[in-house]
Design goal:
6-stranded antiparallel sheet; 4 helices; about 170 residues; alpha+beta; 6 strands
Protein backbone atom coordinates (compact mmCIF):
# COMPACT_ATOMS: atom_id res chain seq x y z
CA UNK A 1 0.00 0.00 0.00
CA UNK A 2 1.37 3.40 -0.91
CA UNK A 3 1.91 6.04 1.72
CA UNK A 4 -0.62 8.31 0.04
CA UNK A 5 1.87 11.06 -0.77
CA UNK A 6 -0.15 12.77 -3.49
CA UNK A 7 -0.88 16.20 -2.02
CA UNK A 8 -3.60 17.22 -4.48
CA UNK A 9 -6.02 14.36 -3.86
CA UNK A 10 -8.80 15.09 -1.37
CA UNK A 11 -9.91 11.43 -1.23
CA UNK A 12 -6.74 9.30 -1.20
CA UNK A 13 -6.92 5.87 -2.84
CA UNK A 14 -4.80 2.74 -2.70
CA UNK A 15 -4.65 -0.76 -4.16
CA UNK A 16 -3.34 -3.96 -2.53
CA UNK A 17 -3.09 -7.42 -4.11
CA UNK A 18 -3.01 -10.44 -1.78
CA UNK A 19 -2.46 -14.17 -2.22
CA UNK A 20 -5.77 -15.38 -0.86
CA UNK A 21 -9.28 -16.12 -2.02
CA UNK A 22 -12.24 -13.78 -1.64
CA UNK A 23 -14.02 -15.90 0.93
CA UNK A 24 -11.08 -15.66 3.34
CA UNK A 25 -11.07 -11.87 3.04
CA UNK A 26 -14.82 -11.67 3.50
CA UNK A 27 -14.57 -13.90 6.57
CA UNK A 28 -11.89 -11.66 8.10
CA UNK A 29 -14.09 -8.57 7.85
CA UNK A 30 -17.27 -10.37 8.91
CA UNK A 31 -15.81 -11.27 12.27
CA UNK A 32 -13.63 -8.21 12.78
CA UNK A 33 -14.41 -6.33 16.00
CA UNK A 34 -12.07 -3.53 17.04
CA UNK A 35 -12.48 -1.09 19.88
CA UNK A 36 -13.59 2.33 18.62
CA UNK A 37 -14.44 1.18 15.08
CA UNK A 38 -17.59 0.10 13.26
CA UNK A 39 -16.80 -2.43 10.55
CA UNK A 40 -19.54 -3.52 8.19
CA UNK A 41 -19.50 -5.58 5.01
CA UNK A 42 -22.06 -5.61 2.23
CA UNK A 43 -21.14 -8.16 -0.45
CA UNK A 44 -17.69 -7.06 -1.72
CA UNK A 45 -17.74 -3.68 0.03
CA UNK A 46 -16.29 -3.10 3.50
CA UNK A 47 -16.88 0.13 5.40
CA UNK A 48 -14.66 1.02 8.34
CA UNK A 49 -15.86 3.98 10.40
CA UNK A 50 -15.21 5.42 13.82
CA UNK A 51 -17.80 4.98 16.55
CA UNK A 52 -20.21 7.91 16.90
CA UNK A 53 -18.54 9.10 20.13
CA UNK A 54 -15.18 9.48 18.34
CA UNK A 55 -16.45 11.36 15.29
CA UNK A 56 -16.43 15.02 14.44
CA UNK A 57 -17.22 17.01 11.30
CA UNK A 58 -13.90 16.03 9.67
CA UNK A 59 -13.78 12.35 10.65
CA UNK A 60 -12.76 10.16 7.68
CA UNK A 61 -13.91 6.66 6.90
CA UNK A 62 -12.40 3.90 4.79
CA UNK A 63 -14.27 2.13 2.00
CA UNK A 64 -12.71 -1.11 0.75
CA UNK A 65 -13.78 -2.91 -2.40
CA UNK A 66 -12.79 -6.58 -2.57
CA UNK A 67 -12.35 -8.18 -5.99
CA UNK A 68 -10.65 -11.10 -7.64
CA UNK A 69 -9.58 -11.69 -11.23
CA UNK A 70 -7.75 -14.99 -10.96
CA UNK A 71 -7.84 -17.99 -8.66
CA UNK A 72 -6.08 -17.42 -5.32
CA UNK A 73 -5.38 -13.71 -5.84
CA UNK A 74 -7.58 -11.01 -4.38
CA UNK A 75 -7.45 -7.26 -4.82
CA UNK A 76 -8.45 -4.61 -2.34
CA UNK A 77 -9.11 -1.07 -3.50
CA UNK A 78 -9.49 1.48 -0.73
CA UNK A 79 -10.72 5.05 -0.60
CA UNK A 80 -10.38 7.35 2.38
CA UNK A 81 -13.05 10.01 2.50
CA UNK A 82 -15.43 11.99 4.65
CA UNK A 83 -18.96 10.99 5.50
CA UNK A 84 -20.76 10.31 2.17
CA UNK A 85 -23.43 12.91 2.99
CA UNK A 86 -20.78 15.58 3.56
CA UNK A 87 -18.92 14.56 0.38
CA UNK A 88 -22.14 14.71 -1.67
CA UNK A 89 -22.90 18.19 -0.33
CA UNK A 90 -19.33 19.30 -1.05
CA UNK A 91 -19.56 18.03 -4.65
CA UNK A 92 -22.99 19.66 -5.03
CA UNK A 93 -21.42 23.00 -4.08
CA UNK A 94 -18.63 22.50 -6.62
CA UNK A 95 -21.14 21.61 -9.32
CA UNK A 96 -23.27 24.65 -8.47
CA UNK A 97 -20.30 27.02 -8.60
CA UNK A 98 -19.17 25.50 -11.92
CA UNK A 99 -22.65 25.80 -13.41
CA UNK A 100 -22.98 29.43 -12.36
CA UNK A 101 -19.54 30.17 -13.79
CA UNK A 102 -20.54 28.74 -17.17
CA UNK A 103 -23.87 30.60 -17.14
CA UNK A 104 -22.17 33.90 -16.32
CA UNK A 105 -19.59 33.21 -19.03
CA UNK A 106 -22.34 32.68 -21.60
CA UNK A 107 -24.11 35.87 -20.56
CA UNK A 108 -20.81 37.78 -20.60
CA UNK A 109 -20.01 36.57 -24.11
CA UNK A 110 -23.51 37.39 -25.36
CA UNK A 111 -23.48 40.87 -23.83
CA UNK A 112 -19.96 41.54 -25.14
CA UNK A 113 -21.08 40.48 -28.64
CA UNK A 114 -23.99 42.93 -28.38
CA UNK A 115 -21.68 45.72 -27.20
CA UNK A 116 -23.15 45.90 -23.68
CA UNK A 117 -21.26 46.36 -20.42
CA UNK A 118 -20.00 43.08 -18.91
CA UNK A 119 -18.24 44.43 -15.80
CA UNK A 120 -20.82 42.99 -13.40
CA UNK A 121 -20.65 39.56 -15.06
CA UNK A 122 -16.83 39.49 -15.02
CA UNK A 123 -16.80 40.44 -11.32
CA UNK A 124 -19.25 37.62 -10.68
CA UNK A 125 -17.03 35.15 -12.57
CA UNK A 126 -13.99 36.33 -10.61
CA UNK A 127 -15.90 35.87 -7.36
CA UNK A 128 -16.86 32.31 -8.40
CA UNK A 129 -13.20 31.47 -9.11
CA UNK A 130 -12.34 32.74 -5.61
CA UNK A 131 -15.16 30.61 -4.22
CA UNK A 132 -13.75 27.54 -6.03
CA UNK A 133 -10.37 28.12 -4.40
CA UNK A 134 -12.06 28.62 -1.03
CA UNK A 135 -13.94 25.33 -1.39
CA UNK A 136 -10.72 23.56 -2.29
CA UNK A 137 -8.93 25.11 0.70
CA UNK A 138 -11.86 24.07 2.91
CA UNK A 139 -11.51 20.48 1.66
CA UNK A 140 -7.76 20.50 2.28
CA UNK A 141 -8.35 21.82 5.79
CA UNK A 142 -10.75 18.95 6.45
CA UNK A 143 -8.28 16.42 5.12
CA UNK A 144 -5.50 17.77 7.35
CA UNK A 145 -7.75 17.79 10.43
CA UNK A 146 -8.71 14.16 9.80
CA UNK A 147 -5.16 12.95 9.08
CA UNK A 148 -4.61 11.42 12.53
CA UNK A 149 -7.78 9.38 12.26
CA UNK A 150 -6.87 8.42 8.70
CA UNK A 151 -3.61 6.97 10.04
CA UNK A 152 -5.62 4.97 12.59
CA UNK A 153 -7.80 3.57 9.79
CA UNK A 154 -4.70 2.75 7.76
CA UNK A 155 -3.06 0.90 10.65
CA UNK A 156 -6.28 -1.06 11.32
CA UNK A 157 -6.40 -2.06 7.65
CA UNK A 158 -2.76 -3.17 7.71
CA UNK A 159 -3.43 -5.15 10.87
CA UNK A 160 -6.40 -6.99 9.34
CA UNK A 161 -4.46 -8.07 6.23
CA UNK A 162 -1.19 -8.83 8.03
CA UNK A 163 -1.83 -12.58 7.86
CA UNK A 164 -1.85 -12.60 4.06
CA UNK A 165 1.07 -12.46 1.63
CA UNK A 166 1.16 -9.37 -0.58
CA UNK A 167 1.88 -9.59 -4.26
Amino acid sequence: MSDLTNEIVLRPRFHVALKTDMEALKHIYDGCKKEGFLISRLDEHVFIKFRKADTNFWTPQLHLELSTYEEGISNIRGVFGPNPTLWTFFMFLHFGVGTLFVILGIFAYSNHSLGKDITFLMVGMFFLVLLWFALYAFGRLGKSKGEGQMEQLKSLFRETISGFQRI
